[in-house]
Design brief:
The chain is 50% helix and 3% strand. It is mainly alpha-helical. The protein has one domain. The strands form two sheets. A two-stranded parallel sheet has the order 1-2. The protein is elongated. The relative contact order is 0.15.
């Protein structure tokens, strides 16, 4: 994880060096995806961050310094969205006030999601069963891969556990038979009240919130959020009911005690990483922490 401790004003040599380092790091992180795209090849695990969230490698590659950080001698960025003129001729800076004025509802939502999620205790009893609930008692599955335990075995795992999903963007894909088995009924309206740091999808969404803030989030933090989302996605699919052995995925068998223990151990680590990133985004954007 990168710790930023730079000045509020960056000379051209400094900011262009940081931009170049960001581009190189992005290229390394997205190389395999771009190679698969060139071959028109899909991957059921790693394509998710680019297809579900809809952010392309080119967007991820664009470095920004963060809200109100002045870039000296940067006339080429003068017309960039949410950039304003800086205090000296030829300088520019990402303008947090301009973003809030243009996108007041989004600004309010993102701040609430980051602060409230970090402030709540994590819940660690879901065991990744949201993916199992998405295929419960149905022959039609979102992913064209076989079930590791077959349909009957998968249904039995769901029926042997309590579903505790708190995340609307997982819950909305539950099968009709799985919906009433969930302890809660998450909605878009209740999302700020239900989101909690133990949720894998909430951890992946830190990347989404960072992208939505655009130039107000330093590029280094954005890539840390992308790496967190990538790592979470891997566990999400390792713990899923699918047989992904053709893609080299070794399952975390959450239907067993050992599998549950491994899942929770890694889940707790992701919760800590997610909360650290929420705090860093709030500090860079608004000068506040997530406490």
């Amino acid at each position: 994880m990168t710790v930023l401790a730079g000045p509020a004003r960056l000379d051209r040599a400094t900011w262009t060096a940081r931009a170049a380092a960001h581009e190189a790091r992005t290229d390394a992180l997205t190389a395999e995806h771009r190679e698969r795209q060139a071959r028109r090849e899909k991957h059921p695990v790693h394509d998710f961050l680019f297809t579900y969230y809809g952010y392309k490698p080119g967007q991820l590659r664009r470095w920004h310094p963060g809200a109100d950080v002045v870039l000296e001698d940067a006339p080429e960025r003068a017309a960039w969205r949410w950039y304003s003129a800086g205090p000296v001729e030829g300088s520019v800076m990402p303008d947090g006030a301009a973003f809030a004025a243009e996108k007041p509802e989004l600004a309010t939502l993102v701040r609430a999601m980051l602060r409230r999620t970090a402030a709540r205790p994590g819940q660690f009893g879901c065991f990744g069963l949201h993916e199992w609930a998405m295929v419960y008692r149905t022959p039609e599955h979102r992913h064209a891969v076989p079930l590791r335990l077959g349909q009957a075995g998968t249904d039995a795992v769901v029926e042997g556990h309590e579903l505790r999903c708190t995340h609307i963007d997982a819950f909305r894909f539950f099968t009709p038979d799985a919906v009433p088995r969930n302890r809660l009924t998450p909605t878009r309206e209740t999302q700020p009240a239900l989101e909690q740091p133990g949720c894998l999808h909430a951890g992946m969404d830190v990347y989404k919130w960072a992208m939505k803030l655009g130039p107000l989030v330093p590029g280094e933090i954005l890539l840390d959020a992308f790496e967190l989302a990538r790592d979470i996605r891997i566990l999400d699919m390792e713990a899923a009911p699918y047989d992904l052995s053709d893609w080299g995925v070794v399952p975390v068998p959450i239907e067993t005690a050992d599998g549950k223990a491994e899942y929770v151990r890694r889940q707790r680590g992701f919760a800590d990483r997610g909360n650290a990133l929420r705090a860093r985004i709030l500090e860079a954007w608004l000068g506040e922490d997530a406490g």
